[in-house]
Amino acid sequence: MEIIIVIVVLMISLCFYFAIKKHKEESRKNTWIHSKTGKKYSIFLKCMIKNPDGKWVDGFIYHRLGEIDTMYVREYEDFVVNFVTLEEWERDNGKDSR
């Protein structure tokens, strides 16, 4: 009986370990760095924004990491010009390669 309990506890522990590892990987994929300030942001949702010309364009709702209570909205094109992925930022040693 004791061996079964040990096996179940080990299996649950392994499940938690892999779930946390997967969450960290997904978080890294969704982390963007502002190329001028170096601050980290995460995309919350994709959305549509009506620009001043009256045309609907793709956009993102995003927030600064650690500040979930403040959300920002930016057009997709403007976002990709001003932000780089965490992987790009680390690869280029914190410099904007564009």
Main pleated-sheet profile: 5 strands, antiparallel
State the domain count. 1
Termini separation: 62 Å
Look at the structure and give the mean pLDDT.
Answer: 85
Question: Order of strands side by side in the largest beta sheet?
Answer: 4-3-2-1-5
Helical region count? 3
Low-confidence stretches: none
Instruction: Quote the beta fraction.
Output: 25-35%
Form type: elongated
Could you say which structural class the secondary elements and strand pairing correspond to? alpha+beta
Q: Please compute the radius of gyration using only Cα atoms.
A: 19 Å
What is the helix content? 40-55%
Count the beta strands. Answer: 5
Along the chain, the helix and strand elements come as HEEEEHEH
List its traits.
alpha+beta, 98 residues, 3 helices, five-stranded antiparallel beta sheet
Lay out the secondary structure.
Layout: H1 2-29, E1 31-34, E2 40-50, E3 56-64, E4 71-75, H2 76-82, E5 83-85, H3 86-91
Antiparallel strand pairs: 1-2, 1-5, 2-3, 3-4
